[in-house]
Fold these 2 entries.
Entry 1:
Amino acid sequence: MTDIHHYITELLKGNVLPGEPPFSLDSNFRAVDREDYLSYLPALCRFIETEKDLFKRSIARLVLERIIPDKPDLAIANCLLKGLEDPDRITRDLLLSHIEPLLLPDGTNIEPIKQCVRKGDFLERTSALKALRAAPGIEGELFLLEVLRRTDNFWDIETIAVILGDIGSVFSLPVLMARLENETMETDELIYQALEKIASRLEMPSELREQLGNPDFWKVNWQGTKESFMGFMAMVTMISGNSDNPEAEDQLGEIFREEMHVDIAPFRTYRELRLCSNDEDMFGAMVGIEESLQSRILLEVALSNAGISESRESQFEGIYFNMLNDYLFTRLRRKIRFADDDF
C-alpha cells in the first residue's frame, strides 16, 4: 500500500496516485491518525485554491476532509467549507457529514452551509442542518431557529429539535414551544425532549422548567379593549399593504384575534367587530397606539443619550417580552406568509 505521506507529497506536486488515499478511517470517515498529517494542511489549502484541474482539486479536498482536526483554524475551516460550492450533490453531502463533528472557529463563513439548507434536496438539506452543530458560538442555533420558524416540513422540525436539544440556549425555548401541536406525536415528543435537554443543560429549577414547558405560559393575551385591538389591526393591515382589502384585513384580524386571545364579545368574528365599529373609534385607537409607541421610542433614546442604562429587572422584562414575541410570531408564520419567509 502506498504510504500516505508519499501520496500527499505527490498530490501536492500535481500527481494523483491510483486508488483511494490509504487512510485508516474512524467512525466519522476521517483518518484515525490525522494529527500526523497536520503539517500538510496549509499546503493542501493553497493547492486547492490555485489548482485548475477539477479532478486534482477534488482529490485534494478529499484528503483535506480526512485529515482536518476537530478544531481547525480559520483559514483551514473556510477552505473546507468552500468545497460546498462543488456542483456535485454527493460530494457536498459527504463534506457536510465531515463538517458536523467539527468545532469551527469564530469568523468562519458558514454561508455555504446555509446555502445547502436553502437550495439542497431533502438529504442535502438534512445534512446541512446537522452540520450547523459545528458553527461557532450561537450562529448555528440562530440559523436553525430561522428555519424552524418558517418550515412546514416535519422532518426539518424533528431534525432541528434534536440538534437544539444539544446546542440550544434559552432563546430556543419559545420557538420550540410554538412548533408544538404537530400532526405526529413523534414530532411533539422530540420537541419536548429538546426542551428538557436545554433546561437540564442550563440547570433550570424544576419550577421554572414546569412553567416554561406549559403552553399557557407563552400565550399572549390582549390586555386592551376590543376597540384598541381594532386600532392595532388597522396599523397591521396598513403596514402589510392590505388597508384597501377588507377581506384580507378580516383574515388577518381573525388570525391575530385567535393567537392573542382577544375578547371581542358580543361579536363572534373580527369581521362582525369591524363592520359594527365606526371609523372615528378605530382611528382614535390607532392614534393612541401610535403615540404610545412613539413615546416609548423617545424615552429609550433619551435614556440612551443621558447614559442611563436599564435596570436588571427591566432587562429581564425586555428579554421575556422578546421571547413572547418570538413565540407569537412563530405561531403566526404558520398561518400568515411574511415578507422575509424566503430568507
Entry 2:
Amino acid sequence: MTADPAAPKSTRTVDEILTAASDESRAALKVLGELVGNEPASVATPAQFATRHLGIDPLALASTRFTGPSTSLAILGNMLRLEIAKHGDAVIIGSPGDGLPPTWSQLDLGLDEHGANTQVTVPGRLVAFFPAGTLAAKGLCVLVDDRHWSREFAILSSNADKGVAEALLASFRERLKSGDNPLRGRVLQASVNDGCIRVGVSPAIDSRREGLILPDDLWREIDVFLAAATTRRELLRSLGLGTSRGLLIAGPPGVGKTHLVRVIAASLVGQYTTILADATSMRHALADLYAESDTFGPTLIVLDDIDLVLGHRDSGGDNTA
C-alpha cells in the first residue's frame, strides 16, 4: 500500500492530537510510551521518579524525612491530598516503587452535622512531584508511605534545596496542631491494629453531668482541674507554674468512673483533644500513644482500666482506676 501523493498532509502537533484523543486513547498511548521507553513508571523507585522530575543527578538527591505514628501520617496525607487538588494538573503522581501503582487509604472523620459518617481518601503510598511555584518556590517531590514497618512522610529535593524542603516539612508538621488537622480538638479513641496504635473519632458519648450523681466536693475538684487546663491556663503560665495536670479517678466497678471521664472530655472539646485509651492500647503501645498526642496540640489522655495493666482487680482491695 502506497500513500496518495495528492492527499493533504497533516499539520497537527502531538499536543493537538492528544488533546483531541479520548481518555482511553491517552491511557493506551501512555502505556505504549512506557514500553517503547523500556522503563514503565510503575517500576521506577521514588528516588528515580524524583531525580527524573527534579532534573538532578541521583547523587544530588536529598531526603528530609518525618517518621511518626500512623495517625499523624494519615493526617499529613490528608494535607497532601488538599495540595494535590489545589494545584491540579501541575502535580505528577508517581509509583511508590516495587512495581506497584499509587495507593490510597481512608481517613475516618466521624459524623458530620447531619449524622452521616464522613471519610476522605488520602494518599497511602505514592510520590508526587510539585513544580516550582506550587508547593514551594523550588520544585519538590513529596513521598508518603503508610506501611506500619515503614511509616514515612518525606520531602525529596536537590541538595541545594534541602533548606526549602526542611522548611516545608516543618510547615506540614506545624499544621498538625492547627485547624488543618480535622481530628484536633475532638474526642478520639485509640486502638491497636497490626501492632500499631491508631487513633480515630470516638462514637458519640453521653456527656451530661445530670446523668451522674456525685458529691459536691468531688465536682469542685473536677472544676479546679478543668480550670487549670482552660480558663486559668495562661495565669498559671504567667506565674511560672506548669499547666500539665493529672487526675486519678478510682473506685469500684459501676460507680461512674468512665462516665465522669467522658463528662471531662466533653468539657474540653475544641480546646483540647482527648484520646481515650483502653488496657489493650496501653499494654501494647503506650509510648506510641503519647507520640500520637504530639499530633494534636494540647491533649488529654485518658488511661481507662489502668489497673488491668498495672495489676489485677482481684489482687486485693476494692478500688480500680
